[in-house]
Amino acid sequence: MSAKIPRNFRLLEELEKGEKGLGAEACSYGLSDGDDITMSDWNGTILGPPHSVHENRIYSLKLTCGPNYPDAPPDVQFISKINLPCVSLTDGKVDKSKLACLDKWKRDFNMETVLLELRREMATGANRKLPQPPEGTIFE
Amino acid sequence: MSDSTSTDQPAAAATAADEIKITVKSSADAKYAMTVSPSILVSDFKQLLEPQSSIPKERQRLIYSGRVLKDGETLASYKIQTGHTIHLVKSAAPPTSGASSGSTTAPVPAAVPQNIAAGQGASNPLAGLTGARYAGLAQLPSASLFGPDGGMGPPPSEEQLIDAMSNPMVQQSMNQMLQNPQMLEYLINSSPNLQGMGPQVREMMQSEQFRQMMTNPEMMRQMMNMNRMMGGGGFPGLGGMMGGAGANNSFPAPGQTDNSTPSTTASTDATANNTLAADPAANLVARLFPGAGGNAPAAGNPFGALFGNNANSANTTPTPAAGTGGATSPPPAGNPMWSPEMMNLMMSSFGGAGAGTAAQQPEDTRPPEERYESQLRQLNELGFFDFDRNVRALRRSGGNVQGAVEALLDGAV
User: What's the pTM?
Assistant: First the structure.
């Protein structure tokens, strides 16, 4: 475990994982534009965790992997409206300081880490009861 | 690196030139291998999936690479290729509007207080706004209730709690909290015991009387007296309750700093019962049980009356309507909350979990030196060396050192 994997290799790895569905089933991600050679803009979905208000919902997100990824965390923004403490109510941006994996980002983390943590966040104590905007509404 | 990742994929066998072989993953590890033309419409593809997945096409949702596939598009437009995987998710039953307010069985009854704090379903456009205030719990007792150290030190004494409850502000917020169906949901859900008890708990917690019990300082004093008599130390029920609501770990209150408070408060307070901390809600109900135990000081105490009501009236199990009504108007005299079955139900579930056992536990059979080990040590440190008297005093106080000291000083033992 010595050599640092360069950004693009990492992203290609993640791309394959996303396309082939090798990761966790509860979330999915892929390049929003397959021709984007910088591999910066990604789509993600999170399947709402069971036994919560999010059950059966699919949340769409936008992830942006900057040039410093994976040394720096991706920017994460919800497209689907959601009421969650770590998510801005106005534009759906995830507040990095409020989501542990973004706040204490490590190089080993990837987009799936983020999506799964968000999903976990939806399932925790109070959050799973938060009233949610109607399904299908999106942040402007 | 690709060879290490293709374990659960069907071998990308050669197929007809323009056909692609994809995998559809559904819930519960169900997988369907599909070979289709990339130019197929998503809606047609769903049709193909219908027999295999036995999910009607209208309720199928397909996700690929972070996108929900739209019916009118082709698979090719999403650049789906051989070896790729599409996720199939079954959507909720068609009338989606009602399903969003609570995932569990409990519908939020429409009859609960119509003020803004009542927490409406998601169909209400304001829900997002009003909901946000619960995240902050702005009006709940502040952390200072637990002392300057955020509750890490000794738990608040009973008197302090009573004082706190005499404060109309605190009382009001407690009341409001208990009126809030979401809060109740939360309390109930945080305790498997309460959960197991089904809808009755919710009704009980929503009842006016119950709330009064929880918020009336006089009642509390009574409860605590009883509590002492029955062998419980301190007032963990309330500690847990306040903690559970005011500063629970999993309740991310912005600006709320003392995360660990509730457990510490409750568990240090409880004499020997760790589960108390984990189970604030159950506890709070359990505290009421000394009265139900049968040997409570009967008349002249509000609980006696409460339980007495039912002692000889054959009771029906509460109807859902009774619970909802309870939120706004006092339940009828029969007080269906305390039907015998309900009692049994609660007692058995508390007994199983060990929460609130102070009330239910039969005589502790351990010898007193073991049972009161730490308390006896404390009494020794305080200069009380008469073992027999110490034990008697502790028995009397239910293991409460302070109470024992009082008894010893009074010469009551």
Answer: 0.42
